[in-house]
Amino acid sequence: xAKTKKVVQFTATDIKEELLKKYxxxxxxxxxxxxxxxxxxxxxPAPEIVANVRTIPGIIxxxxxxxxxxxxxxxxxxxxxxxxxxxxxGCSFYAWLTRRNQTDAGTDGENxxxxxxxxxxxxxxIIFGGEKKLEAAIQEAYDLFHPKGIAVxxxxxxxxxxxxxxxxxxxxxxxxxxxxxxxxSCEGYKGVSQSAGHHIANNQVFTHLVGENEVxxxxxxxxxxxxxxxxxxxxxxxxxxxxxCGITNIATFSxxxxxxxxxxxxxxxxxxxxxxxxxxxxADMLETKYGIPWIKVNxxxxxxxxxxxxxxxxxxxxxxxxxxxxAVIAEEMPEVLAVSEDVKTRTNGKTAMxxxxxxxxxxxxxxxxxxxxxxxxAGYEFGHRDDYEGRQVIPDLKVDADSRNIEEITVVADExxxxxxxxxxxxxALEDAGYEFKHYDGLNPxxxxxxxxxxxxxxxxxxxxxxxxxxxxxxxxIKEKFSIQKLGVPMKQLHSYDSGGPYAGFxxxxxxxxxxxxxxxxxxxxxxKAPWQESPELTGKFVWE
Amino acid sequence: xxxxxxxxxxxxxxxxxINPAKTCQPIGAMYAALGIKGCLPHSHGSQGCCxxxxxxxxxxxxxxxxxxxxxxxxxxSVFGGQANLVQAINNIFTVYEPDxxxxxxxxxxxxxxxxxNQIRDKAQKEGKIPEGKxxxxxxxxxxxxxxxxxxxxxxxxxxxxxxPSGKKNGKVNIIPGWVEPCDMAEIKRIAGLIGxxxxxxxxxxxxxxxxxxxxxxxFPDGGVTIPELKASGDAIxxxxxxxxxxxxxxxxxxxxxxxxxxxxxxxxxxxxxxxFVDVLRTVAGVSVPDSVAVERGQLVxxxxxxxxxxxxxxxxxxxxxDQLISMTEFLISLDMQPVYVVTGxxxxxxxxxxxxxxxxxxxxxxxxxKGDMFDVHQWxxxxxxxxxxxxxxxxxxxxDEDIPFLRWGFPILDRQGHQYFPTVGYKGGLRLLEKxxxxxxxxxxxxxxxxxxxxxx
Lengths: 545, 457
Ligand code: SF4
Ligand code: SF4
Prior knowledge:
The complex is a heterodimer of chains A (about 550) and B (about 450).
Chain A: H1 12-20, H2 25-34, E1 35-37, H3 66-75, E2 81-86, H4 89-94, E3 117-118, H5 123-128, H6 131-145, E4 149-154, H7 156-161, H8 165-176, E5 180-184, H9 194-208, E6 222-226, H10 234-245, E7 248-253, H11 259-264, E8 270-273, H12 276-290, E9 294-296, H13 302-316, H14 319-347, E10 351-355, H15 360-370, E11 374-379, H16 385-389, H17 401-404, H18 424-432, E12 452-454, H19 459-469, E13 473-476, H20 478-486, E14 491-493, H21 505-520, H22 531-534
Parallel strand pairs in A: 2-3, 2-4, 4-5, 6-7, 6-8, 8-9, 10-11, 10-13, 11-12, 13-14
Antiparallel strand pairs in A: 1-12
Helix pairs in contact in A: 1-19, 3-9, 6-8, 9-12, 10-21, 13-14, 13-21, 14-21
Chain B: E1 17-18, H1 25-33, E2 39-44, H2 47-61, E3 68-69, H3 74-79, H4 82-95, E4 100-105, H5 107-112, H6 116-125, E5 134-138, H7 147-159, E6 172-175, H8 181-194, E7 198-200, H9 226-231, E8 237-241, H10 243-257, E9 261-264, H11 270-284, H12 290-310, E10 314-319, H13 321-333, E11 337-343, H14 348-358, E12 366-368, H15 373-382, E13 387-390, H16 395-401, E14 405-407, H17 425-447
Parallel strand pairs in B: 2-3, 2-4, 4-5, 6-7, 6-8, 8-9, 10-11, 10-13, 11-12, 13-14
Helix pairs in contact in B: 1-2, 1-7, 4-6, 7-10, 12-17, 13-14
The complex binds iron/sulfur cluster (2 copies).
One iron/sulfur cluster binds near residues 73, 275 and 277 of chain A.
């Protein structure tokens, strides 16, 4: 293959220096704290990383905004709620079907996901206030569709002009009686990234939806799956596996989810957290208010899926479930192994970089390992320190002005519904056996010593990293895709999966192995130079001259 | 049914927009700015807008779209974004070394009232703008107009760089409006055939169609240069293609620099291309070579050969006003019937123009500015059409109602080719016809019973 591999072996310190070299001194100082060389060993303490801090003006960031985290990520994949964006048109337009959250409209057939709703604010609304228009828009949505719920999202100008969207929502809810109307103060400028939006969304979902449905859904081994967004059908595959194991998924937050799922979440006996960053808030609140314990799971990777299923089975501790889970794993694994064995002959020893979201950059590590590939550099777009270093750092996290902007809600045990699912003795017994509740170690321990971990990577650093380390594959989002590919390195989108997926569960693992094999071994990357460009100094003549 | 909740019964909506046929100003400004050589667009506001605009442009053009942002947080939103922008300008020139930074505002910075000129002057005074480098700015509040307005505002900011020397340089300015990079290249090719020396701005050809070579250039070689923009004040005339996208800049050059302007329709289809070529040769004082007449004749030939397939077909189209006007005219010239025409961009003039074009035709046109695709879909439910023409989002209507669908306009997120194969000019007309025909004939081949399934046209 014509792609030239790196000749010089750079040390991690060289690379860090190289990344910082061009910045103005102030920028360099700040970025230095967000670029970490992973050197955690048993002897020395893990180095700290600075995360969840402001993006530097003018530095081309990969990040989005609070509204994107709230509307796009958490509420977007809910099919039977009308998501009405209060603001000028753009914000609603860009979040219209662009995340590839797949949806099954279900037997009731309600599905508003292909629609884009906006109040399309005009200058008069900015000058005189947009509450009247919002009220009218909610009314029109209700008259047209009679949905179960209408969610209102604030965009930047709405916060500035001071529209009270919550008051409007409350008024309309009271007026309708049969439609839940609630609002999210998720103006884009709040916080420093999408992450703030996740938090705001979680608070409101918990306040306005969870607990609304009093009737407990039928089924055994009831769980919630938190932080799984059904990109490219991931959630469908996980649900297939759950069903096969006999596990009842009450609510997925928020992939292929529905109003009733959120409203019934309090009936589950265990919460399983996929994306720790975006949803640990809800897991905690469910525990405090209803007594539902939570565990961290990962369904990205076949081994990871098996491990997570076993963890769920162990929690319920029921022989029937444990056996069934083992049977399912035994049934699913042969195909997965057959493909991975085959693919591995072509992927073993190859390298990857991952810079996505707040958990994906960690989750996909396992899949790459299963293919014999190594992640040489990774980081989050909007993770917090606990996503890198583990939850034990949470008490030490500094609360800065930007985090203080985000409403914290206080949740207490529900007088009637609080019901600890396990006795303290049962919990202790599980823990003594090595079982971990409310636990997340973060990305760092799973990365090699000396690998480079970077928070809030930007375009300049991405390009430099790729030039210096020439990974075999780079994973990030659409904005990064083509600049990386122009450098001759295949790029896989891990937010939207290009148009692939699912990559979760057993079938997903197979899809992913094949996809990565295709990408890293594609002939395309050998076409970069025309034959006459490979040795331009050639001066020979053809014989007929 | 994907849009299963769309009722047939049409009720007037005053406040709720559903499935918009427009988006917001800054994305247009960003696209226009990419047509300046060595330019990094900069979004003055919170970073989310910039991320969205970059993503959407990337998905449409399948090319890297670099743009920086002032990354407002709550503080900047309250106290003003001056500090953020000055810092950004410094960081951008240090790290990315562009020749030009083209700043546009967002809803946020507009609402708090940041003054771009004043901030630029401050940056200049503080020495944050290196010698020979340029910072331009355009106000682009999204609660006014649409993405088309934003495009127009940035193009006007480009025109305002003009520094007339008092001596005419014999060149003609062409402002192409929001068309694809390949369309811009096609306009240059046509001008080249006619032998007119032009300055095209913006010009995204050579920028958003970069080859894959193993090298990444943040600033590819294409784009209009700053010296060319400065010299635009010395041109012998300006052709503004499209009232909505291009006229403001052209009129500014006319009134401030005495460069006479002509506002034309975008050259989609036969008649609009004819007018473009005719005005161009008149302004430049040259004659049109036969090669252009041959291309024209080829288009006329295809129209006549295939007329039976176009005749009487009902079409729904939505998109940007300048594009829709030319497309409506083209469809009518084929004896097709553009019965529903909707733009999200406001402007009563649009409705009047479409009505005028459709006057005396054997069909009634339903036209709406400030409309949305929900309108289009509801009308279709009441009386269907044979063809849809519009951006990617039309695929939901196309599938639900089983109607052939031509992707044209912005954004096209799910198909390739629009960035390479022009639809302007005579050659572009051929491509449009070929696409429409293929849709009709594929449909016929799919639906015809076996007895009437035919091999030849
Ligand atoms: S806040 Fe305004 S500029 Fe930003 S995406 Fe929304 S509409 Fe567009
Ligand atoms: S995985 Fe990433 S992109 Fe997805 S929800 Fe979590 S933080 Fe967001």
